[in-house]
């Protein structure tokens, strides 16, 4: 005997989240088939390189960056970092589009898969609550916020910074506005899903122990991966500044993008 009920999918992701994850994985897969020189050129053209922005927009001279690289290297002119700096800064072109496109590139399969898992976890409630357009707006602006803060705090850095972590961090921050809110009753006579709950007020978030624990774990994880970098856990240095920048943008921007009203009051005196 067969049931007429359709089976629930194993991963019930909104289409915009599924397509976003598929796009990130497809881009990384495509790069694995490219010649090394072509992939290097893509990395240079589409990643965030703070020194490039500093020279183009921050009033920093290219020679100042190169002098700092020579001073930091015992081999001086022969340093590969100096050579990279000369290559990157030769046209003094800022390439502003890299504030977004860097989020589409990843350094390894573990990098893209970890970001995809977090995007599925925190992007799903955002997409269900806000729709595709606001989902993309939050992702793009969080990525830009992460890139700007990273570049500001690493003004002379010539190594490319890539990854969707800042966008994902913005999703995490946005979700904290409602994921830990108490359940209400839906007009259909059922408890509300997390993405259906009214947005908490900022004072209520600050007083919510679950949110504080969540934020503490998140910031601690950024510290561990940014400074300690446990052996075998990361493939390269983690741009914790980009994570923080994306998180702050997501936290501040979500009330503007949220289509649902905020909860009026939760705690009583």
UniProtKB/TrEMBL annotation:
How this chain sits in the membrane, per its record, is: Multi-pass membrane protein
Q: Is DNA damage set as a keyword in this record? A: no
Give GO terms: molecular function aspect only. Answer: peptidase activity
Q: Which UniProt keywords apply?
A: Cell inner membrane, Cell membrane, Hydrolase, Membrane, Protease, Transmembrane, Transmembrane helix
Q: Which residues cross the membrane?
A: 12-30, 99-121, 133-152, 158-180, 211-232, 238-257
Give the domain of life: Bacteria
Q: What is this protein called?
A: Rhomboid family intramembrane serine protease
